[in-house]
Automatic annotation (TrEMBL), chain A:
Gene Ontology cellular component annotations, sorted alphabetically: plasma membrane
Main localization category: membrane
Keywords: Cell membrane, Membrane, Transmembrane, Transmembrane helix, Transport
Self-association and partners: Forms a stable energy-coupling factor (ECF) transporter complex composed of 2 membrane-embedded substrate-binding proteins (S component), 2 ATP-binding proteins (A component) and 2 transmembrane proteins (T component).
Membrane topology value: Multi-pass membrane protein
CDD domains attached to this UniProt entry: EcfT
Name the UniProt record assigns to this protein: Energy-coupling factor transporter transmembrane protein EcfT
Subcellular location: Cell membrane
InterPro entries for this protein: ABC/ECF_trnsptr_transmembrane (IPR003339), EcfT (IPR024919)
Similarity annotation: Belongs to the energy-coupling factor EcfT family.
Known role: Transmembrane (T) component of an energy-coupling factor (ECF) ABC-transporter complex. Unlike classic ABC transporters this ECF transporter provides the energy necessary to transport a number of different substrates.
Ranges annotated as spanning the membrane: 43-61, 68-85, 105-127, 237-261
Pfam families: CbiQ (PF02361)
UniProtKB/TrEMBL annotation, chain B:
Keyword Ribonucleoprotein: no
Enzyme Commission code(s) on record: 7.-.-.-
Domain ABC transporter as annotated: residue spans: 3-246
Broad class of where this protein is predominantly found: membrane
Organism of this sequence: Anoxybacteroides voinovskiense
Top-rank taxon: Bacteria
GO CC terms of this entry: ATP-binding cassette (ABC) transporter complex
Sections of the chain in a coiled coil: none
Cited NCBIfam families: ECF_ATPase_2 (TIGR04521), PRK13634.1 (NF010155)
Membrane-topology descriptor: Peripheral membrane protein
Similarity remark: Belongs to the ABC transporter superfamily. Energy-coupling factor EcfA family.
Gene Ontology terms for molecular function: ATP binding; ATP hydrolysis activity; ATPase-coupled transmembrane transporter activity; cobalt ion transmembrane transporter activity
Protein name per its UniProtKB record: Energy-coupling factor transporter ATP-binding protein EcfA2
Metal-binding found in the keyword field: no
Length: 263, 288
């Protein structure tokens, strides 16, 4: 369990205390602008900006890097694919049929950097923001769409419920694996047919249980007077401070600079 | 099968920042044919200990010997199947593991996994269902149409059909009404006698531990705090209460009675029957 993508790390940093809406919007703007970068200057700007944001997290940098390690393979693969398959510019190196061109190398670096920036930015968001905060932010940002009868509240609720139950489901899966292993199921080998059987012995009880739980949850919510988002107040109020404006303004600023400097 | 724990440590997520130690140098010997109750507070390591009995977990340090099998941290998962046939584990809320279309198929699932032929498995399913006190007509029904209590019995039958030598029970009566609890416990007591099983029961009900077990193992903070006969374990009420455990109601009643009348009741009073005998002895022994 050393993958940190999507994992919240508690801390009391400036970033952690920011309004989740600001962080979410900043993440979206940043992610969009990454696709407009197309030369060294613009990529350098994006990298520097992200670097500052990550430093402000006050989470050990080595921890973030370690967590990103599993993704590095995909990044490396992307790099190699582009490096070998793009045939532009001068030839740099040639081994038999395989040749690396200048354009390919550049493209490989840029594309994998783009990949890395996107992942690092989303990690920045999830490290500093609890899933509940993210859903609150989503609900608030898309709130205006309620006028067009988009069920924003319901969607946000679905999102938070599914996030809430991921650990529960994981725990249950582990228990079920053990219970069926005790009945002689071999999850680690055996012929194909038996493995399919092993999977049904695992998945069917899990599904049945999940459905049952969903029903119970619905009843429990109704019993406590839940009837959708209409007139519902919030326990955690989102407050927009000057620091949030700063974050958003600087993100927009970087994007504008990027548009000016791109080739 | 004799079961021996030698200096067993177990650490969850060993070698990671999330490492959590659950067992500390556990030494424990369970002789063949005994009925052992494991009691302890939540988080005392009961469930972790129990999962070592059929190799669902293997010790991080130390070793566990079960009959001719020895479990150490170098154990391969594949070699554990024969052990799992001999050690049947009934988990908490075993009805959650039902998945087949019919009760018969579900009970046959275990035996078939251990290489029993289909005809024999069906025969065993029939016997196991009778054993848990359910009518044969249920064999063709879907397990999901049954009541909660019936589902529990079907799940237990699924383990019994494997004909294990060691029966491991993790709070088998959790969530049952008092009558259902008594019936299930009587069933296990009968099986223990008739099939010469070794039975390991994890429970929160001190009454059950006192009534059915030959030995009681008290777990506390990941280690064996005390072992002994129910009489010995439930003798020292204050000591047990200090670690957050209770003693059977009858033992508490005995103590109150003794304080009131200033005499000793000549019985350990672990069960209702013993309590009645003790009071009778007071009356008719001419000592009152």
């Amino acid at each position: 369990m050393n993958v940190i993508i999507g994992r919240y790390v508690p801390s009391n940093s400036v970033i952690h205390r920011m309004d989740p809406r600001a962080k979410l919007l900043a993440m979206f703007i940043y992610a969009a602008s990454v696709f407009f970068a197309n030369n060294g200057v613009t990529y350098a700007m994006l990298t520097a900006f992200l670097f500052i944001l990550l430093l402000l997290l006050r989470v050990p940098f080595s921890f973030i890097l370690k967590g990103l390690r599993p993704v590095l393979w995909i990044v490396l693969f992307t790099f190699l694919l582009h490096a070998f398959l793009t045939k532009e510019g001068a030839t740099l190196y040639q081994i038999g049929e395989l040749a690396i061109y200048e354009g390919g190398l550049q493209k490989g670096v840029f594309i994998s950097l783009r990949f890395l920036l996107l992942i690092a930015m989303t990690t920045w968001l999830t490290i500093s923001t609890t899933p509940v905060e993210v859903t609150d932010a989503v609900e608030s940002i898309f709130g205006p769409l309620k006028r067009f009868r988009v069920p924003v509240h319901e969607l946000a609720l679905m999102m938070s419920i599914s996030l809430r139950f991921i650990p529960t489901l994981m725990e249950e899966t582990e228990k079920m694996i053990k219970a069926q292993a005790a009945r002689g199921v071999d999850f680690y080998g055996g012929p194909f047919g038996e493995r399919i059987k092993a999977m049904t012995a695992l998945l069917i009880p899990l599904f049945i249980h999940a459905f049952k739980r969903a029903e119970e949850l619905a009843i429990a919510m109704e019993a406590r007077g839940y009837r959708g988002g209409e007139g519902r107040t919030k326990y955690r109020l989102l407050t927009w401070g000057s620091i949030d404006t700063w974050l958003l303004a600087s993100t927009v600023g970087v994007t504008i600079l990027l548009l000016l400097f791109r080739a | 099968m004799d079961i021996v724990f030698e200096q067993v440590d177990y650490i969850y997520h060993a070698n990671s920042p999330f490492a959590q130690r659950a067992l500390y140098e556990v030494d424990l010997a369970i002789e063949h044919g005994t009925f052992v109750a494991i009691v302890g507070h939540t988080g005392s390591g009961k469930s972790t200990l129990l999962q070592h009995l059929n190799g669902l977990l293997v010790p991080t340090n130390g070793k566990v010997r079960i009959g001719e099998y020895t479990l150490t941290n170098r154990q391969k998962q594949k070699q554990l199947k024969p052990l799992r046939r001999k050690v049947g584990v009934v988990f908490q809320f075993p009805e959650h593991q039902l998945f087949e279309e019919t009760v018969e198929k579900d009970i046959c699932f275990g035996p078939l996994n251990f290489g029993v032929s289909e005809d024999v498995a069906k025969q065993k399913a029939k016997e196991a269902l009778a054993l848990v006190g359910l009518p044969e007509q249920l064999l063709s029904r879907s397990p999901f149409d049954l009541s909660g209590g019936q589902m529990r019995r079907v799940a237990i039958a699924g383990i019994l059909a494997m004909e294990p030598d060691v029966l491991v029970l993790d709070e088998p009566t959790a969530g049952l009404d008092p009558y259902g609890r008594k019936e299930i416990m009587e069933l296990f007591a009968r099986l223990h006698r008739e099939r010469q099983l070794t039975t390991v029961l994890v429970t929160h009900h001190m009454e059950d531990a006192a009534k059915y077990a030959d030995y009681v193992v008290v777990m506390q903070k990941g280690t064996v705090w005390k072992t002994g006969t129910p009489e010995a374990i439930f003798h020292d009420i204050d000591e047990l209460q200090q670690i957050g455990l209770n003693v059977p109601e009858t033992v508490l009643l005995k103590r109150k009675l003794e304080e009131k009348i200033g005499r000793e009741i000549p019985s350990p009073c672990l069960t209702n029957e013993q309590l009645i005998d003790g009071i009778k002895a007071l009356f008719f022994g001419g000592r009152l």
